[in-house]
Each structure stands twice: as structure tokens, then as C-alpha cells.
Write a structure and sequence with these properties.
Blueprint lengths: L8 E4 L3 E5 L19 E7 L7 E9 L1 E2 L4 E2 H7 L3 E5 L7 E11 L10 E12 L9 E2 L29
Length: 166
């Protein structure tokens, strides 16, 4: 993926896609440094919106699992930077922006310390339904003092509230 790419990938609704996150362009590196614990989130928005306004809806989220004491970052690094996500089976056919995101919380004990690592692609969904989920403004989904953004990894915890819409 590249910020200058104009390719649009055809994706069948209900299928599993793989998004990749890597520290380096070689694609042979892990997704992110191992101590950068935090959630992984994936959003979609109609391409015609250019991502502006209340158009983004969440299709995937994974945060902290208290049973395994692992974060999505652990899962992602174990999979060599690959994150499998299911495109909703009932989503309306059409072209969409797809935004994967890692939020690193290693400095988030301070307000404003969370680090955001987005990754975007353009897809054309085929074989879907009629669903057009309500959206939110991607620029308004997080506040720096939200519990899932302002979070202390070093103070002991047994749960985590994933930020953003459901």
C-alpha cells in the first residue's frame, strides 16, 4: 500500500481480508515494537465521501484479552504483521476506503501520549447486501482523555475499554 496508489482491490462481502502492518517497507519486519501494546481497529467509509464527515463505521476491534494477558499487538506481531478481518456480508456493494489502525499505549499514561498508526486501502465490495451503517467523523472519534486513549499500562489492569464507536 502506498499513499500515491490508485489501485482498488475487489473484495467479496463476507470474505476475510488480510491487512498488513510493518515497521519497515520490506514487509519482513514485525508490525510494531513489542512493547507498544494497544488495540487494533478497522473502519470503512464510502469512497465517494473521501472520508469526510459522519461516514466511517467500525468493522473490527481487538484490544486486551485478560484471559491470555495479551494485546492485539501481540497477536499481530505473532502473525508477522498480518491482521485478518472479515468484510461484513450484508454491506452494500460499492467502493470503500478501508482504514486499519493500531493505537500504541506505551506513553498513554500522559494525556496526549497515545500513538496512532493508520493504514489505508481502497476496496470495491461485491456480492453484498443493502446495509449502509451509520457513520461517525473519523476526526471526532477519540478524545485524548478517553479511557481507551489515556491509559496507564504500568499501573496494573485487568480490563481495557476499546475506544471509538461500537
Amino acid at each position: 500500500m502506498s499513499s500515491t496508489s490508485t489501485d482498488i482491490c475487489d473484495v467479496k462481502a463476507g470474505s476475510t481480508i488480510t491487512m498488513e502492518f510493518h515497521e519497515e517497507e520490506s514487509r519482513s519486519s514485525r508490525a510494531i515494537e513489542g512493547k507498544h501494546y494497544g488495540p487494533c481497529l478497522v473502519y470503512m467509509a464510502p469512497l465517494a465521501s473521501n472520508g469526510k464527515g459522519n461516514v466511517w463505521f467500525k468493522i473490527f476491534e481487538e484490544g486486551y484479552n485478560p484471559n491470555t494477558e495479551e494485546w492485539c499487538i501481540d497477536t499481530l506481531n505473532r502473525a508477522d504483521g498480518q491482521l485478518e478481518v472479515v468484510i461484513p456480508a450484508d454491506i452494500a456493494d460499492g467502493e470503500y476506503l478501508l482504514r486499519g489502525e493500531i493505537i500504541a499505549l506505551h506513553l498513554a499514561e500522559k494525556v496526549g501520549g497515545a500513538e496512532f498508526y493508520p493504514n489505508c486501502a481502497q476496496i470495491n465490495v461485491v456480492g453484498g447486501g443493502t446495509a449502509k451503517p451509520p457513520g461517525v467523523d473519523i476526526l471526532q472519534i477519540y478524545n485524548e482523555d478517553d479511557p481507551g486513549i489515556h491509559f496507564n499500562l504500568y499501573d496494573g489492569y485487568d480490563s481495557y475499554s476499546i475506544p471509538g464507536p461500537k
